[in-house]
């Protein structure tokens, strides 16, 4: 069983930056970040695996996903934040080596961290 704990969310003005962190308790191959705004479905944001990274079109050029395997931690650096980035951000993990953009492919989820971007 893998446990994931996110941190780093908060309130920031438009144009600002935040860095989310997700610490995992077990071995994982592929990690992802998803987000869910009120009344909306959970959407893919970014993923990382041995094969590389992937990003949603809405965050390309602004967000960067990275990982530190020595710390079992994955990060999401978010720059040039916009009010439409406001959501609860979830970290997800799966034990398979291929990265995925689909939420149902992930076996483990964190509790979520709120990101609010004011205009």
Features:
119 residues, mainly beta, seven-stranded mixed β-sheet, four-stranded antiparallel β-sheet
Give a written overview of the molecule.
The mean pLDDT is 95. Helices cover 0% and strands 51% of the residues. It starts with a strand and ends with a strand. The protein is globular. It has no helices and eleven strands. The protein is an all-beta fold and 119 residues long. Strands 2, 4, 5, 6, 9, 10 and 11 form a seven-stranded mixed sheet that branches.
Q: How far from one another are the termini?
A: 40 Å
Structural class: mainly beta
The proportion of strand residues reads over 45%
Mean pLDDT across all amino acids: 95
Helical percent range?
Answer: under 10%
Largest sheet: 7 strands, mixed
String of helices and strands: EEEEEEEEEEE
Write the layout of secondary structure elements.
Layout: E1 4-7, E2 10-13, E3 18-24, E4 30-36, E5 43-49, E6 52-55, E7 63-68, E8 73-78, E9 87-94, E10 108-109, E11 113-118
Parallel strand pairs: 2-11
Antiparallel strand pairs: 1-3, 3-8, 4-5, 4-9, 5-6, 7-8, 9-10, 9-11
Give a short summary of the structure.
The chain is mainly β and 119 residues long. The protein has strands at 4-7, 10-13, 18-24, 30-36, 43-49, 52-55, 63-68, 73-78, 87-94, 108-109, 113-118.
């Amino acid at each position: 069983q893998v446990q994931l704990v996110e941190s780093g969310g908060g309130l920031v003005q438009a144009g600002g930056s935040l860095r989310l962190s997700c610490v995992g308790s077990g071995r994982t191959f592929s990690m992802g970040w998803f987000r869910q705004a009120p009344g909306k479905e959970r959407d893919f944001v970014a993923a990382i695996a041995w094969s590389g990274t992937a990003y949603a079109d809405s965050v390309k050029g602004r967000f960067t996903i990275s990982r530190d395997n020595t710390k079992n931690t994955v990060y999401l650096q978010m720059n040039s934040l916009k009010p439409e980035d406001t959501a609860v951000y979830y970290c997800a993990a799966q034990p398979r080596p291929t990265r995925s953009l689909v939420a149902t492919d992930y076996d483990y989820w964190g509790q979520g961290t709120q990101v609010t971007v004011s205009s």
